[in-house]
Q: What sequence folds into this?
Protein backbone atom coordinates (compact mmCIF):
# COMPACT_ATOMS: atom_id res chain seq x y z
CA UNK A 1 0.00 0.00 0.00
CA UNK A 2 1.62 3.21 -1.17
CA UNK A 3 0.34 5.26 1.77
CA UNK A 4 2.34 3.05 4.12
CA UNK A 5 5.49 3.77 2.12
CA UNK A 6 5.00 7.50 2.62
CA UNK A 7 3.98 7.67 6.23
CA UNK A 8 5.38 5.85 9.25
CA UNK A 9 3.11 3.24 10.84
CA UNK A 10 2.93 4.97 14.21
CA UNK A 11 0.93 7.86 12.68
CA UNK A 12 -2.04 5.57 12.08
CA UNK A 13 -1.85 4.02 15.54
CA UNK A 14 -1.63 7.54 17.01
CA UNK A 15 -4.60 8.61 14.87
CA UNK A 16 -6.73 5.77 16.24
CA UNK A 17 -5.64 6.44 19.81
CA UNK A 18 -6.30 10.18 19.52
CA UNK A 19 -9.70 9.37 18.02
CA UNK A 20 -10.58 7.17 21.04
CA UNK A 21 -9.31 9.75 23.52
CA UNK A 22 -11.17 12.59 21.77
CA UNK A 23 -14.38 10.54 21.74
CA UNK A 24 -14.04 9.86 25.46
CA UNK A 25 -13.26 13.51 26.18
CA UNK A 26 -16.35 14.71 24.26
CA UNK A 27 -18.56 12.88 26.76
CA UNK A 28 -17.06 14.94 29.57
CA UNK A 29 -17.02 18.21 27.63
CA UNK A 30 -20.15 19.46 29.35
CA UNK A 31 -18.31 19.48 32.66
CA UNK A 32 -15.81 21.97 31.31
CA UNK A 33 -16.45 25.55 32.38
CA UNK A 34 -15.84 26.87 28.85
CA UNK A 35 -19.20 27.07 27.04
CA UNK A 36 -17.99 27.60 23.43
CA UNK A 37 -16.14 24.25 23.43
CA UNK A 38 -19.48 22.49 23.93
CA UNK A 39 -20.56 23.83 20.51
CA UNK A 40 -17.96 21.59 18.90
CA UNK A 41 -19.01 18.42 20.67
CA UNK A 42 -20.77 16.82 17.66
CA UNK A 43 -18.12 17.76 15.06
CA UNK A 44 -15.45 16.50 17.43
CA UNK A 45 -17.29 13.21 17.93
CA UNK A 46 -17.70 12.77 14.18
CA UNK A 47 -14.05 13.58 13.64
CA UNK A 48 -12.94 11.17 16.35
CA UNK A 49 -15.12 8.39 14.92
CA UNK A 50 -13.56 9.03 11.48
CA UNK A 51 -10.10 8.88 13.07
CA UNK A 52 -10.95 5.60 14.83
CA UNK A 53 -12.27 4.10 11.57
CA UNK A 54 -9.22 5.20 9.57
CA UNK A 55 -6.85 4.15 12.37
CA UNK A 56 -8.46 0.70 12.64
CA UNK A 57 -8.47 0.25 8.87
CA UNK A 58 -4.84 1.27 8.60
CA UNK A 59 -3.83 -1.00 11.49
CA UNK A 60 -5.31 -3.87 9.49
CA UNK A 61 -3.59 -2.61 6.35
CA UNK A 62 -0.24 -2.43 8.19
CA UNK A 63 -0.68 -5.99 9.43
CA UNK A 64 -1.61 -7.16 5.94
CA UNK A 65 1.24 -5.22 4.35
CA UNK A 66 3.76 -6.70 6.76
CA UNK A 67 2.44 -10.18 6.11
CA UNK A 68 2.87 -9.61 2.37
CA UNK A 69 6.35 -8.16 2.80
CA UNK A 70 7.33 -11.21 4.85
CA UNK A 71 5.93 -13.45 2.12
CA UNK A 72 7.88 -11.51 -0.54
CA UNK A 73 11.09 -11.89 1.46
CA UNK A 74 10.45 -15.60 1.86
CA UNK A 75 9.78 -15.93 -1.88
CA UNK A 76 12.90 -13.94 -2.76
CA UNK A 77 14.98 -16.26 -0.59
CA UNK A 78 13.37 -19.29 -2.23
CA UNK A 79 13.94 -17.87 -5.71
CA UNK A 80 17.60 -17.14 -4.93
CA UNK A 81 18.01 -20.66 -3.60
CA UNK A 82 16.29 -22.16 -6.65
CA UNK A 83 18.50 -20.14 -9.02
CA UNK A 84 21.56 -21.46 -7.21
CA UNK A 85 20.23 -25.02 -7.39
CA UNK A 86 19.42 -24.51 -11.08
CA UNK A 87 23.01 -23.51 -11.85
CA UNK A 88 24.36 -26.45 -9.85
CA UNK A 89 22.04 -28.84 -11.66
CA UNK A 90 23.14 -27.41 -15.02
CA UNK A 91 26.77 -28.13 -14.14
CA UNK A 92 25.81 -31.67 -13.10
CA UNK A 93 23.88 -32.28 -16.34
CA UNK A 94 26.69 -30.85 -18.51
CA UNK A 95 29.27 -33.02 -16.75
CA UNK A 96 27.11 -36.09 -17.35
CA UNK A 97 26.63 -35.23 -21.05
CA UNK A 98 30.30 -34.41 -21.63
CA UNK A 99 31.37 -37.64 -19.95
CA UNK A 100 28.94 -39.75 -21.96
CA UNK A 101 29.94 -37.96 -25.18
CA UNK A 102 33.58 -38.67 -24.44
CA UNK A 103 32.80 -42.36 -23.93
CA UNK A 104 30.82 -42.49 -27.19
CA UNK A 105 33.64 -40.79 -29.09
CA UNK A 106 36.24 -43.12 -27.61
CA UNK A 107 34.17 -46.19 -28.43
CA UNK A 108 33.62 -44.95 -32.01
CA UNK A 109 37.33 -44.23 -32.44
CA UNK A 110 38.21 -47.65 -31.01
CA UNK A 111 35.96 -49.39 -33.51
CA UNK A 112 37.44 -47.40 -36.42
CA UNK A 113 40.96 -48.17 -35.18
CA UNK A 114 40.00 -51.83 -34.89
CA UNK A 115 38.77 -51.77 -38.51
CA UNK A 116 42.06 -50.18 -39.66
CA UNK A 117 44.21 -52.39 -37.50
CA UNK A 118 42.55 -55.80 -37.70
CA UNK A 119 39.73 -56.07 -40.20
CA UNK A 120 41.49 -54.61 -43.25
CA UNK A 121 44.36 -57.04 -42.75
CA UNK A 122 42.25 -60.17 -42.75
CA UNK A 123 42.82 -62.20 -45.86
CA UNK A 124 39.18 -62.79 -46.70
CA UNK A 125 38.48 -59.08 -46.30
CA UNK A 126 41.42 -58.12 -48.54
CA UNK A 127 40.17 -60.56 -51.14
CA UNK A 128 36.66 -59.17 -50.84
CA UNK A 129 37.85 -55.56 -51.20
CA UNK A 130 39.91 -56.43 -54.28
CA UNK A 131 37.11 -58.29 -56.01
CA UNK A 132 33.97 -56.60 -54.81
CA UNK A 133 33.83 -52.84 -54.63
CA UNK A 134 30.57 -51.65 -53.14
CA UNK A 135 28.03 -51.13 -55.94
CA UNK A 136 27.17 -47.50 -56.65
CA UNK A 137 23.47 -48.15 -56.06
CA UNK A 138 24.17 -49.25 -52.51
CA UNK A 139 26.36 -46.19 -51.89
CA UNK A 140 23.67 -43.92 -53.30
CA UNK A 141 21.02 -45.55 -51.15
CA UNK A 142 23.20 -45.14 -48.07
CA UNK A 143 23.94 -41.49 -48.91
CA UNK A 144 20.28 -40.77 -49.52
CA UNK A 145 19.43 -42.25 -46.11
CA UNK A 146 22.22 -40.27 -44.44
CA UNK A 147 21.05 -37.05 -46.07
CA UNK A 148 17.32 -37.50 -45.52
CA UNK A 149 17.27 -34.99 -42.68
CA UNK A 150 19.08 -32.27 -44.66
CA UNK A 151 17.14 -29.07 -45.15
CA UNK B 1 -18.53 14.82 -0.99
CA UNK B 2 -15.04 15.49 -2.33
CA UNK B 3 -13.58 14.39 0.99
CA UNK B 4 -15.58 11.16 0.88
CA UNK B 5 -14.40 10.40 -2.66
CA UNK B 6 -10.81 11.17 -1.69
CA UNK B 7 -11.04 8.96 1.41
CA UNK B 8 -12.56 6.06 -0.52
CA UNK B 9 -9.89 6.40 -3.22
CA UNK B 10 -7.13 6.40 -0.62
CA UNK B 11 -8.55 3.41 1.20
CA UNK B 12 -9.22 1.41 -1.93
CA UNK B 13 -5.73 2.11 -3.24
CA UNK B 14 -4.62 -0.32 -0.52
CA UNK B 15 -6.24 -3.08 -2.52
CA UNK B 16 -3.74 -2.77 -5.37
CA UNK B 17 -1.26 -5.55 -4.87
CA UNK B 18 1.54 -6.66 -7.10
CA UNK B 19 4.12 -9.32 -6.47
CA UNK B 20 7.56 -7.74 -6.77
CA UNK B 21 9.39 -11.08 -6.92
CA UNK B 22 10.95 -11.59 -10.32
CA UNK B 23 11.86 -15.07 -11.43
CA UNK B 24 14.37 -15.62 -14.19
CA UNK B 25 13.92 -18.40 -16.68
CA UNK B 26 16.74 -20.90 -16.05
CA UNK B 27 19.60 -20.73 -18.50
CA UNK B 28 20.10 -23.83 -20.58
CA UNK B 29 23.70 -25.11 -20.80
CA UNK B 30 25.54 -24.20 -24.00
CA UNK B 31 26.46 -27.87 -24.46
CA UNK B 32 22.80 -28.67 -25.01
CA UNK B 33 22.40 -25.90 -27.57
CA UNK B 34 24.85 -27.47 -30.01
CA UNK B 35 23.01 -28.64 -33.09
CA UNK B 36 23.25 -32.24 -34.18
CA UNK B 37 25.64 -32.57 -37.15
CA UNK B 38 24.63 -33.97 -40.53
CA UNK B 39 25.40 -37.64 -41.03
CA UNK B 40 28.35 -38.44 -43.25
CA UNK B 41 27.93 -39.74 -46.75
CA UNK B 42 30.22 -42.13 -48.60
CA UNK B 43 32.33 -40.34 -51.20
CA UNK B 44 33.74 -41.76 -54.45
CA UNK B 45 32.65 -44.24 -57.08
CA UNK B 46 34.82 -47.20 -56.18
CA UNK B 47 34.41 -47.63 -52.47
CA UNK B 48 35.81 -50.43 -50.39
CA UNK B 49 33.43 -52.13 -47.99
CA UNK B 50 35.71 -51.14 -45.07
CA UNK B 51 35.49 -47.45 -45.98
CA UNK B 52 31.76 -47.72 -46.09
CA UNK B 53 31.81 -49.52 -42.76
CA UNK B 54 33.87 -46.71 -41.23
CA UNK B 55 31.38 -44.13 -42.47
CA UNK B 56 28.53 -46.15 -40.99
CA UNK B 57 30.34 -46.50 -37.66
CA UNK B 58 30.99 -42.78 -37.65
CA UNK B 59 27.33 -42.09 -38.34
CA UNK B 60 26.32 -44.32 -35.43
CA UNK B 61 28.69 -42.32 -33.27
CA UNK B 62 27.10 -39.06 -34.44
CA UNK B 63 23.66 -40.47 -33.69
CA UNK B 64 24.60 -41.50 -30.15
CA UNK B 65 26.25 -38.15 -29.48
CA UNK B 66 23.10 -36.39 -30.61
CA UNK B 67 20.75 -38.68 -28.69
CA UNK B 68 22.90 -38.05 -25.62
CA UNK B 69 22.19 -34.32 -25.96
CA UNK B 70 18.48 -34.94 -26.49
CA UNK B 71 18.41 -37.02 -23.31
CA UNK B 72 20.26 -34.15 -21.68
CA UNK B 73 17.42 -31.80 -22.65
CA UNK B 74 14.96 -34.22 -21.05
CA UNK B 75 16.99 -34.35 -17.84
CA UNK B 76 17.39 -30.58 -17.88
CA UNK B 77 13.65 -30.04 -18.19
CA UNK B 78 12.72 -32.55 -15.47
CA UNK B 79 15.29 -31.18 -13.01
CA UNK B 80 14.58 -27.52 -13.71
CA UNK B 81 10.83 -28.10 -13.39
CA UNK B 82 11.40 -29.80 -10.05
CA UNK B 83 13.42 -26.81 -8.86
CA UNK B 84 10.89 -24.34 -10.31
CA UNK B 85 7.97 -26.09 -8.59
CA UNK B 86 9.79 -26.16 -5.27
CA UNK B 87 9.27 -22.39 -4.96
CA UNK B 88 5.83 -21.95 -3.41
A:
Amino acid sequence: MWLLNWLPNWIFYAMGLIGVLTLVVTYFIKFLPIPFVYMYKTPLQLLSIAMIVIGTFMAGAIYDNEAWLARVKELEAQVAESEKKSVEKNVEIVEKIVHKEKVIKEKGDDIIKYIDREIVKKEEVIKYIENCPVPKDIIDAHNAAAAMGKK
Amino acid sequence: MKAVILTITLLLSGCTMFVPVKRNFPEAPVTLMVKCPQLETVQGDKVAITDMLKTIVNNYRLYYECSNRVEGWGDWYVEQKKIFDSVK
